[in-house]
Design brief:
This protein is α+β, with helices and mostly antiparallel strands and about 400 residues long. It folds into three domains: about 170 residues, no CATH class; about 60 residues, no CATH class; about 140 residues, no CATH class. The protein is about 50% helix and about 10% strand. The chain is built from 15 helices and ten strands. The radius of gyration is 27 Å and the shape is globular.
Length: about 400
Amino acid sequence: MKDDLAEPVMTRGYAEDGKCFIAEVTQEQLWAGAICPMPDERRAIEGMWADFERSILENDIPRALENISCILFLQALLDAIETTLDEPELPQMGLPRWTRMLQLVERFKYLITPNANGIRTFLDQITIVKHRYVVLARLRRMLIDEAERPTCLSNLPVAELRTRFLNDGRKWPDAPARGLVHVPHEQPERYVSFDRAESLIGCSTHFLQLAVRSNVFPGSCVVQYGIRRYTFLPVQAVEAYRKWYSSLATREQVLNELHIDGRNYAALLGAGLLCPIGIANYTFFHRTALNDLCRRLDGLSRPFPAMGIHLRPLFGSWIFGKGITKAISEKLLEEAFSGKFPIFRQQENPGLSAYFVDHAAVDRAYRLRRIESAKRTRQAGMVSFRQLSLLP
């Protein structure tokens, strides 16, 4: 085990000298000074990584990607709990990383299983208030980091898991636990600090500052302690704003949740099928509108044929092929959502990747390309004719 060289998830350890991304570590660095785990540590490591290793050996890349996403997600939350809490009962920081993590799991009786259900079970087990605040903050940070630099964690429904964790029926105290928000005095009754509001809402600091300056939180107050000024926001206003913000999706979330790329996103925008909401320099989309896109295609789609028909993804690369302009791509999507050609649905696929088309859509693309090519030829001929008519 080499826990002094690299961490598999983003932690404060990356800021230290000598640390590096795990993909950059050489074989020589891995073997130099490596130590063997204790039996309990080995069982914990095998329980976490065994299925991932099997999927690699079996060349099952989709399962490996799903496994590694769940593993890194769980380790990120465990690291957040282990490194943030400052309790005398916690293991000493000089111990190996996996030893500290194992002691943490055993102490709080956490059940760790690296899959989608295991993640939900783990979040349901977190009942200690300090742990819940730390995990909530880590999930928020994860959403912001993934929007700026997507990793395999973007394959997980982080926003949905955070909302579920926040609304699981447990009562969140009005005041955060000591040490989580460093305000030197008690906050006003029925108010929350700016940091607490930011964590509950799940937005960026700048976006919340913009909302405060725009008077989105009527009744907010600023308390000055010495030279420091602290903003407190009404609990009810924060809860209402959290519900509103959770109904929106950013561009990155749209790409992840609909399972499309940037070209498909631009085509949907150009076709008027996605309607952005501009707030200052931020762009959002109503989640209900994203659901409506899938519902519209569901109403038009047919069952996926068992065999005998060559189908292409509706949002595949063919829609941006040679000679197919942006206008043609947008026209094809408009016609797809109008039911102009057959659409088939693959139940197992997520988002818009579930929808496929047959030769009728491809033929329509070629027809539109010929029409546009003929139009350009006519326009070029008219320009040449006008130029000739101007000659003496």
